[in-house]
Hints:
alpha+beta, eight-stranded mixed β-barrel, five-stranded antiparallel sheet, 24 helices, 26 strands, Bifunctional diguanylate cyclase/phosphodiesterase, Biofilm_reg_signaling, PAS, PAS_fold
Amino acid sequence: xxxxxxxxxxxxxxxxxxxxxxxxxxxxxxxxxxxxxxxxxxxxxxxxxxxxxxxxxxxxxxxxxxxxxxxxxxxxxxxxxxxxxxxxxxxxxxxxxxxxxxxxxxxxxxxxxxxxxxxxxxxxxxxxxxxxxxxxxxxxxxxxxxxxxxxxxxxxxxxxxxxxxxxxxxxxxxxxxxxxxxxxxxxxxxxxxxxxxxxxxxxxxxxxxxxxxxxxxxxxxxxxxxxxxxxxxxxxxxxxxxxxxxxxxxxxxxxxxxxxxxxxxxxxxxxxxxxxxxxxxxxxxxxxxxxxxxxxxxxxxxxxxxxxxxxxxxxxxxxxxxxxxxxxxxxxxxxxxxxxxxxxxxxxxxxxxxxxxxxxxxxxxxxxxxxxxxxxxxxxxxxxxxxxxxxxxxxxxxxxxxxxxxxxxxxxxxxxxxxxxxxxxxxxxxxxxxxxxxxxxxxxxxxxxxxxxxxxxxxxxxxxxxxxxxxxxxxxxxxxxxxxxxxxxxxxxxxxxxxxxxxxxxxxxxxxxxxxxxxxxxxxxxxxxxxxxxxxxxxxxxxxxxxxxxxxxxxxxxxxxxxxxxxxxxxxxxxxxxxxxxxxxxxxxxxxxxxxxxxxxxxxxxxxxxxxxxxxxxxxxxxxxxxxxxxxxxxxxxxxxxxxxxxxxxxxxxxxxxxxxxxxxxxxxxxxxxxxxxxxxxxxxxxxxxxxxx
Length: 694
């Protein structure tokens, strides 16, 4: 038994018959002649519009009547013989009789054309009035002509060979042609290569029993594209031979363009035109599958632009966008046409090198990318220099799953950054272990915040003129439950990379504020505490400073009680964004210190640009003071310049009495170092400050 029959309980032959019958009924619904489907017992099962009008009953109630009742009495015996012959014959039967209407009016003589419908349960009867048949056909043709010529949709008809035999004015207008220029021409003549391929794929000339809806592409006479949705219907002659196809055509050019635009926006980066993260992941998955089939390998390059943030801050976002677009062009010139270059977002790019058989080609491409991005960028008359840190992971050697491969390439990229930037690095197992260690630290950091495992030590800052301790620097420590007391260098980088540095920094500020309030009562009313802020905090803390000011007001604490220390390294690559933030701190009344001055990023001429109060000279300079070298002259120059700008100078890293004496002679204001005290608890610092004051 056929599977289809098992599933539905209806044989394929019966299904095919019902489909043909429905199609047949649709064709005859508006026919100018009467059409009836009559059961073998004479009941009317279906009637078209003309048929219902012929017998004088509403079409919806025709099923309540018998067809024989509308045959004149003296013709019924002849009709019965005719009907019996029709339902028992494969060939159609024709008979002339006379019929009447429900109101006993007379439709007059008619010709019946009857045949069994193939289901074995009903008979189809076509009723044609003997008088007025030609007029009915003429009315039908006129109606068809009006519909076709006034239709808001295009209509075309082709013969069995694909030549156009008919088009309506709308179709000609859609193509921008005259009707005469379309007739007897192959339909594919008005298509480009893509359109012909779609036409052949769907092949509307196939001899289907029913039509279908397809999307076809044409080329207008002006060369523009015309996308259409065509409802096609095959045409057969009385012998069942395919003779052509008729199509009802809708212009969908705008809808398709809109859909393509939405698809493009969802899969491509607007700035560079490169595939975005979504498209990149899809391409990478495809290339991984191809590598499995072809026994080749895939190299994933993860590219991060070094110092882009500084260029963006210094020259503005518009220039930064220009740099990104140019960087994309440079990288694209380094890879093969078959490779995929994508922009993940910001200044991060990826390259998928597929179908590789040896690693040497990866080295060559990676180095060419590094070299290309190291060349200066001319950005609207401004020269900018960046570099690239590139991480490489190989499939399947380094990972079998897409997320793991991407993660490993990212780890290798950070290895390049940590090694000095402007280079490429391959993923190794050591990097994976380091990444796992970072994950553990990050998890522990979240726990540390929740469990209050952080504490603050304080290092005194001594006045070189009086020896008093009226200042201190707050130094963060982490009392880890298993690793003991950890210095900032052991966890701050992880806090910065995870973003938790902002929450930790806020806690340090509030703790320092509470402590300085106590010391202003017990030691000196003008006592100050310095808190450190990393460059990451400046980029991520947003409007946190307003919360700080509100907190100081709640405590009735003068804002100048807190000194915000920033590293000189934060000035690298331009300080425009930093200047704005420093100005905000000064407006709030907070004081600012430039830490680690003298390590190379800032010069003496830069001091006047920054809205700061203190300059803290890097410990490396103090530790080389001996009274004879150039370091003392450098100190004297820094102090003189700072004083002329109204700034105070703090020398860091002071460990000997000789260093202290030389710094005092140079005019330095304050000193900080092991000579005066190591980082200590708040209680110990208070005792030290009171003792020195006493």
